[in-house]
Write a structure and sequence with these properties.
The protein has about 60 residues and is α/β, with parallel strands linked by helices. The protein has one domain (about 1-50). About 30% of the residues lie in helices and about 30% in strands. It has 2 helices and 3 strands. It has a 3-stranded parallel β-sheet. Helix 1 (about 10-20) links the parallel strand 1 and strand 2 (about 25-35). The longest helix has 11 residues, at about 10-20. It is globular. The termini are far apart. This is Protein YmjC.
C-alpha cells in the first residue's frame, strides 16, 4: 500500500485528486489542511486520515 500526503486538502484541486485516489485500493491518503472543517466530505475514512496545521505546530 502506498501512502499519499495531500497538502491543502480543503481546496478545489485537492477535492478532485482525493476523489480520484479514493477509488484506488492500494493508496492510503493523509489529508493536510489548515482548517480541517473545510475538507469536503463524504470520503471513505478507512483509507484516509486528516490532520491540521495547528496540530503539527503544537507537536513541535
Amino acid at each position: 500500500m502506498k501512502n499519499v500526503l495531500i497538502l491543502g486538502a480543503g481546496g478545489q484541486i485537492a477535492r478532485h485528486v482525493i476523489n480520484q485516489l479514493a477509488d484506488k485500493q492500494t493508496i492510503k491518503q493523509t489529508l493536510f489542511a489548515r482548517q480541517p472543517a473545510k475538507i469536503h466530505k463524504p470520503y471513505p475514512t478507512n483509507k484516509m486520515q486528516t490532520t491540521s496545521g495547528k496540530k503539527v505546530i503544537q507537536d513541535r
